[in-house]
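Thread: quick sanity check before group meeting

JM: Hey all, I'm pulling together slides for Thursday and realized we never actually wrote out the predicted structure for the chain we discussed last week. Dropping the sequence here so it's in one place. If anyone has concerns about the input, flag it before I start.
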Amino acid sequence: MVPRKIAEQVLVYNASMLQAAGITFDNINAQPWDVFKDICKRLTVVENGTVKSSGAGLMIERSAIFQMFLRGFGGKWIDSVEHKVYLASSNEVMYGINEIVTGIREGWLYPEGMGDIVNVNYAFSAGDTNISSVCFKTFGAMSWLTRVGNAYDALGLAWDFCPMPAFPTH
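JM (edit): ok, ran it. Output follows.
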């Protein structure tokens, strides 16, 4: 039963935020993970221990997103022959988990939908209210498109879709 389902996850970005930071972004080709992470770090603002803006707000609790980190660095976490799940037995899987934890601690990765349960002080909350504070955002269903697009448009922010970052094992 792992993975439990295949679901669409869409990545959108705040083009106005990138432009204000003077960052040129290719929204057609998947950016290598290290390039994506560097952009996110450059967009993150932390003042007096509070994250004012974050490079990415990913729904990491969603299976489609979480699995990118588990598998994206070459790790194997499912043994389909023995029917077992191994998280801690692969250095590559643990590397992916560490990328999540480090990103959250440093503030450049906001755990969308989970920000109130981590020990990091964010000046914003989940959902459409943080679209001016988070550059890259995932949302989980195409049915959200109108609502999310209208939220960007209401604030006069340029936005667009882009591919998920290209992890080393893409």
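AS: nice. The helical segments are 15-20, 33-43, 63-71, 91-106, 145-154. Residues 60 and 108 are 13 Å apart (CA to CA).
JM: adding both to the slides.
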